[in-house]
Design brief:
Structural class of chain A: alpha/beta
Shape of chain A: globular
Largest interface: A-B, 61 and 61 residues
Number of domains of chain A: 2
CATH topology of the largest domain in chain A: Aspartate Aminotransferase, domain 2
Distance between the termini of chain A: 31 Å
Strand content of chain A: 15-25%
Order of helices and strands of chain A: EHHEHEHEHEEEHEEEHHHHEEHEEEHH
Number of helices of chain A: 13
Largest sheet of chain A: 7 strands, mixed
CATH superfamily of the largest domain in chain A: Type I PLP-dependent aspartate aminotransferase-like (Major domain)
Oligomer: homodimer
C-alpha cells in the first residue's frame, strides 16, 4: 500500500503505535453498527470495563473515553489538580514535555525534572525533590515513547506513596499491556493507556483509572472541565452507560482483545512482546548497532545510529523499498535513531522482513554490515526458531 | 443480534445516531492499520479535510478531532470565550441544556432562552434578547436531537450577524449532511458535526469550523484548554498532520464518504434523507400519530404518542420482536415519544420493516390502528414505489 511500484511487499507496520491490528479486531470493526442503548451493548460495555482492570491490575474502576492518549493524560491532570498546585514532572522526552506544557496551561506550577534523552529517572532523583518541597503530584511516563526508555515505576511508587499529599500519575500509554504495570501494587494513583498500543486497536480511545487517594481529590480539583470531568463518567458507568455517545466499534473490539487477555493471562502477552524486543536486540548486536535507551522498554526499541547514518533516510528507505513503517526520532533525536515497535499483531515473518529491510537499507546508506546477508539471515532465522 | 430467539430478523438500526454504516465504510474499517506518518495517510488526511468543507459549505478550514460530538461543542466554546463572558443559549432540549451547563462550568455567564420542548426558537426571540444586552455569543442546536426540532438557523444568522461582538455558534451534530446548513452563507461563526450521524461512521470524531469573526477571538479566549486548543490543530494541519495521533481508521472511512458526497453533491443526500422523513410522516398520518416537533428536522422524526401508549414499552417491543432499534424520549419526553432516525445507510426494506414493527407493536399495546395490516402494508409499499 505504502510503497512505490517497485516493491511488492504487503504493508508491514512496526511503529510504537498505531500498531498492526489483530485480524479478529479488523473483523469486528466491520460489523454492522449497533446502538449503545441496547442490551447487547450494555453487556459488552460492562464486560470491557471489568476486563480493563486486568490490564491495569487494579481493583479500582477503569474508564474508557473517546479521545487519544493525550486526552487521557489531560483527564488524570484536570481531575486531581487545581490552578496554583505544584507538581513535579519527569521530562525525559516529548511526552514528558507535553505533560508539563499541559499542566502549565491549566495554571499548575510545574517543576521539571529534566532527564537526558535516552536516560531513565532514578528513585533518588525523585526522593531528593520530594524532600525539598510539597508536591501535589509527580507525573511521569512509564515508557517515554520518544526515547524508548522504561522508567522504574515500581521504585518511584515506593518513594512517592510515603507522601500523603502527593499523587503518582503515570502515563502508561506505550507501556500498559506490554510491560508489567500493576497499578495497585506499585502505588500508582492515576494511570492512562491508549487504544492504539498494546490494546491492538485503532487510535481513538484512552483508558484511565484512579486510586482511592486520587479519587479523594476529585471534589477539590478546581481546574474547570466538562468533557474530561471523570465524575460524569463515573455516574454514567454506575448506570451501565458512558456519559457521551459510546465508541461502540472500538469498545466491541476492545472487549474481544481483553477477553483473550483474560483467558490467557497477562504473562504470555508480556512474554510475546519481550521476545520481539529480544529479537531486535539480537538483530542490533549482529549489525553492530546499539540501543538509544539506557533502560529499554519491551514495547519499543530506539536504535541509535552512527553519526554517518541519517535516520530519516533510513526510515524512508525501509518504507519505500520494503513497504515497512518504523518511526524516526523526534526533536533532538531526529535523524539519530529509528524506533521499532513491538506491540500489536506481529508475526515472525514480519520480524524477518524487518531484519532484511534494515540490513539492505543500511547497506544502501553505505553502512555495510560486517556479516554477509546470507549468514545474517540464517542467524536471524535460527534465533526465531530457538527462542 | 439484539433480539431474543423468537425473532429472526437481521438487526436494523434506525436511531438518530449512531446510524447504520455504509457497507463500504465497514469494509474500510476492516483494512489493515497504516501509520499516520506515511505518504498514503498524508494524502487521505489532506483530501478528507478539504472535502469536509463541502458538507460545511464553507471556505474556512474544517478540523477533524478525536472526540464525540460533545467534545466538538466544547471546542467551539473554549476557543472563542473567556470566563465572565456573557452568552445566550437556546435551551430547547437535552443538548441545549448541555451547552448551557458546559459554558457555566467554564465560568461563562449564561442566559438561557428556554423553549418549550418540541417548539422551535424564532428570530424574534433572539432579536429581542440581543437588544437588551451585549452577548459574546449565541449558542443553539440546528436540530435538537431530543425533540427532533429544526431551528431556523438561516434567519437566526441574519439577525446575529448585525452584532459585531456576537458570535453565532451552532451545534450541527444531528443536522450537518442531513439538512442544508451552509456555514458561510448563513453567517454561522462556529459549527460542529459528529461522525456517527449523517457522515455514516462510527462514533469517535467531531468536526469543527470557525468563521473569520470567530477566528479573531482565539487569541483573546481565556478559558484554559490543551486537548481542545484549536490553535494546536491549526498549526499541525498546516504541516499536513493532526496534532494528536490521527484517528486513521475513521479518517479513511470519512474520506470515502466525503468523496461520494463530492462526486454526487449534497443535494441528493439531502433528498434521500428527506424522503425517509416524508415516508415516516406518511406512516404516522396513516396510523393516526402526530409529530412531537412543531418544526421537523429531516434527520429524525420524534413521534408523539397518545397518553395511553407507553413509549418505553413501544420501543422495547420493536427491539425484542423486530430486532429494530429506534430511540425513546429523554427526561420530560420519556415514555411520550419515540425517535426515528433518517440518517445513515437505510434502504426501503428497512423502512417497510419499521412500518411493520410500528403497526404490530402498537397493536400489541392495544392501540389498534384503524386500518387493516394488509391495507396498511399496501399503502406503505405504494408510497415507496411512487416517491
Amino acid at each position: 500500500m505504502q510503497g512505490k511500484a517497485e516493491n511488492h511487499f504487503d504493508y508491514t507496520l512496526m511503529a510504537p503505535g498505531p500498531v498492526n491490528l489483530h485480524p479478529k479486531v479488523r473483523e469486528i470493526l466491520a460489523h454492522p453498527m449497533i446502538h449503545h442503548r441496547t442490551p447487547e451493548f450494555d453487556k459488552i460495555l460492562a464486560q470491557a470495563l471489568k476486563r480493563l482492570k486486568i490490564v491495569f491490575q487494579t481493583e479500582q474502576p477503569v474508564y474508557a473515553l473517546s479521545s487519544t492518549g493525550s486526552g487521557g493524560m489531560e483527564v488524570l491532570l484536570v481531575n486531581t489538580l487545581s490552578p496554583g498546585d505544584s507538581i513535579l514532572v519527569v521530562n525525559s522526552g516529548k511526552f514528558g514535555e507535553r505533560w508539563a506544557e499541559m499542566a502549565r496551561t491549566f495554571g499548575v506550577q510545574v517543576d521539571e525534572l529534566k532527564i537526558t534523552w535516552g536516560q531513565a529517572v532514578t528513585p533518588e532523583h525523585i526522593a531528593e525533590k520530594l524532600k525539598t518541597k510539597t508536591y501535589h503530584a509527580v507525573l511521569t511516563q512509564a515508557c517515554e515513547t520518544s526515547t524508548g526508555v522504561l522508567h522504574p515505576i515500581q521504585k518511584l511508587g515506593a518513594v512517592i506513596k510515603n507522601y500523603q499529599h502527593t499523587l503518582f500519575l503515570v502515563d502508561g500509554i506505550t507501556a500498559l499491556g506490554a510491560v508489567p504495570l500493576p497499578m495497585d501494587e506499585w502505588s500508582i494513583d492515576g494511570l492512562v493507556g491508549g487504544s492504539q498500543k498494546a490494546f491492538m486497536l485503532p487510535t481513538g480511545m484512552s483508558f484511565v483509572s484512579f486510586s482511592k487517594k486520587a479519587h479523594a481529590r476529585f471534589e477539590h480539583a478546581k481546574i474547570p472541565k466538562f468533557y474530561f470531568d471523570i465524575r460524569k463518567e463515573i455516574a454514567a458507568n454506575a448506570k451501565g452507560e458512558t456519559f457521551f455517545s459510546s465508541n461502540v466499534s472500538l469498545i466491541k473490539a476492545l472487549n474481544y482483545v481483553l477477553a483473550e487477555i483474560e483467558s490467557a493471562g497477562l504473562a504470555p502477552l508480556f512474554k510475546t512482546i519481550q521476545r520481539r524486543a529480544d529479537f531486535v536486540a539480537y538483530l542490533m548486536e549482529t549489525l553492530g548497532l546499539s540501543s538509544y535507551a539506557a533502560v529499554k522498554s519491551a514495547s519499543l526499541t530506539a536504535v541509535a545510529l552512527p553519526n554517518s547514518t541519517d535516520g530519516q533516510k533510513l526510515r524512508e528507505l525501509m518504507e519505500v523499498d520494503f513497504n515497512l513503517t518504523v518511526m524516526g526520532g523526534q526533536d533532538q533525536a531526529k535523524g539519530k535513531i529509528i524506533r521499532i515497535g513491538h506491540m500489536g499483531y506481529i508475526q515472525d515473518k514480519d520480524q524477518m522482513h524487518l531484519a532484511t529491510a534494515l540490513y539492505h537499507s543500511l547497506q544502501k546508506l553505505n553502512m555495510t554490515p560486517s556479516i554477509s546477508f546470507i549468514d545474517f539471515q540464517t542467524q536471524m532465522k535460527n534465533w526465531l526458531a530457538q527462542n
